[in-house]
C-alpha cells in the first residue's frame, strides 16, 4: 500500500514538473530590421528590429545574432525578416555619447532569414 501511495505521489510530482517545463518554452518571434556587421566579421546585429513595422508604439531594438544558418553574410546591409528566439532583456543604458556594448544586447537565435529589401530603410 505504501508503495502505491508513493508511486501516485511521485507520478503526480513528475507530471506537474513536465507541465511547468512546457510553459517555460521560448516561442519563436518574427522580427524585421537591418542586418549589419558587428565589431568583427563573425558578429552580426539586427538593428531597428520590430515585430510590427506599422506600429507607432513599438520601439525598435538592436539584437546580437547567433545563427546556425549560413547565409547571414549574403544578407548584410539589407532589410531582413528573421524568425527565431529572442531574449526579452533590456540592455543597460550606455554612457552619454556611446553605444550599448554588443555583449549587453539581447540575443536573437536565428532559425530562418529572408531578405525583405535590397537595402536598409529607416524603420526606427
Write up what this structure looks like.
The structure is a single chain. The protein has 1 helix and 5 strands; from the N terminus they run αβββββ. With about 120 residues, the protein is of the alpha+beta class. It has a single domain, classed as OB fold (Dihydrolipoamide Acetyltransferase, E2P) (Beta Barrel). It has a 5-stranded mixed β-barrel. A hairpin with a 6-residue loop joins β1 and β2. About 15% of the residues have low confidence.
Short description:
This protein has 124 residues and is an alpha+beta fold.
Considering the chains and any ligands shown, give keywords for the structure.
5 strands, 1 helix, 124 residues, five-stranded mixed β-barrel, single chain, alpha+beta, OB fold (Dihydrolipoamide Acetyltransferase, E2P)
Amino acid at each position: 500500500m505504501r508503495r502505491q501511495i508513493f508511486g501516485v505521489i511521485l507520478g503526480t510530482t513528475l507530471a506537474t514538473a513536465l507541465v511547468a517545463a512546457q510553459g517555460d518554452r521560448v516561442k519563436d518571434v518574427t522580427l524585421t530590421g537591418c542586418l549589419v556587421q558587428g565589431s568583427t566579421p563573425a558578429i552580426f546585429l539586427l538593428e531597428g528590429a520590430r515585430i510590427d513595422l506599422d506600429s507607432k508604439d513599438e520601439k525598435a531594438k538592436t539584437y546580437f545574432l547567433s545563427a546556425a544558418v549560413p547565409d547571414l553574410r549574403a544578407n548584410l546591409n539589407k532589410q531582413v525578416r528573421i524568425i527565431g528566439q529572442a531574449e526579452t532583456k533590456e540592455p543597460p543604458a550606455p554612457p552619454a555619447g556611446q553605444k550599448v556594448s554588443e555583449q549587453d544586447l539581447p540575443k536573437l537565435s536565428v532559425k530562418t532569414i529572408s531578405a525583405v529589401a535590397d537595402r536598409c530603410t529607416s524603420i526606427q
